[in-house]
Amino acid sequence: MSIALRTDGLVKQFGGLRAVNSVSLSLPQGQRHAVIGPNGAGKTSLINLLTGVLRPSAGEVYLGEERVTRLSVHQRVKRGLTRTYQINNLFPELTVLQSVLLAVCEQHGVATQLWRPLAACAAEIAAAREILRTLNLHHIEGEAVKELAYGQQRLVEIALALACKPRILLLDEPAAGVPKGESAALFAAIARLPGEVTVLLIEHDMDIVFRFAERITVLVAGAILTEGTPQEIARDAQVKQVYLGNAA
Ligand SMILES: Nc1ncnc2c1ncn2[C@@H]1O[C@H](COP(=O)(O)OP(=O)(O)O)[C@@H](O)[C@H]1O
Ligand SMILES: [Mg+2]
Fold this sequence. Notes:
The protein is an alpha/beta fold. It has two domains: about 1-80 and about 165-248, Rossmann fold, CATH 3.40.50.300; about 85-165, no CATH class. The chain has nine helices and ten strands. The two termini are about 35 Å apart. The structure holds adenosine-5'-diphosphate and magnesium ion. Magnesium ion binds near residues 43 and 44.
């Protein structure tokens, strides 16, 4: 199985604080991988190093065979590494279909021609609807984004990310702020993502992590404590002690 995403000895130093400490990860293509760890463990910093938002103090990031450590965020997106957009990147007045259509047209390089007759966008509309079906949003394609429940807005963000045709999708707490009742639908949609897409998920809810992930990396104080299958992580005494603490 080819490796989609790999890091080698990644370090991020913020002054005296080593937020990410020598992290080496390897995700085969199509793997559903979760990174867990207490608050402040360095999970978001790690994602920022992967996307190129942050430059590492040491270490390397590879997409497939290619070293991308010094590439910009945009250059990495072009190579298939995408993270979910922030909520305020959504245009509230647009409908769900229009939002995704805009992103698909941009990906197809036809964004500047968006106002041509709709019939000329048939391929893009079909692609947008396909993404909406994957995420179970097709039945609300005509609704304005601002009218949606928060969990559905997060799904629209994932739809926009999918429009970039990612090979690797990074999800940093996608259910943050989503009411409990809506998060099940969100994770059901994430679980239905195309099998060839490699997914790296950061998530607090252990039930969700253990159901979703094929492999789990436990990060503590910037460093990898252990990595394994959900079964291995669930039995790991060290993990219980430092992370699951009260639950154990
Ligand atoms: N830009 C920054 N400057 C200084 N310290 C930071 C910065 N970003 C994060 N940190 C610190 O790095 C540590 C890891 O943070 P973070 O990656 O957000 O952890 P997590 O996502 O696991 O909660 C924390 O102690 C945090 O305060
Ligand atoms: Mg975080």
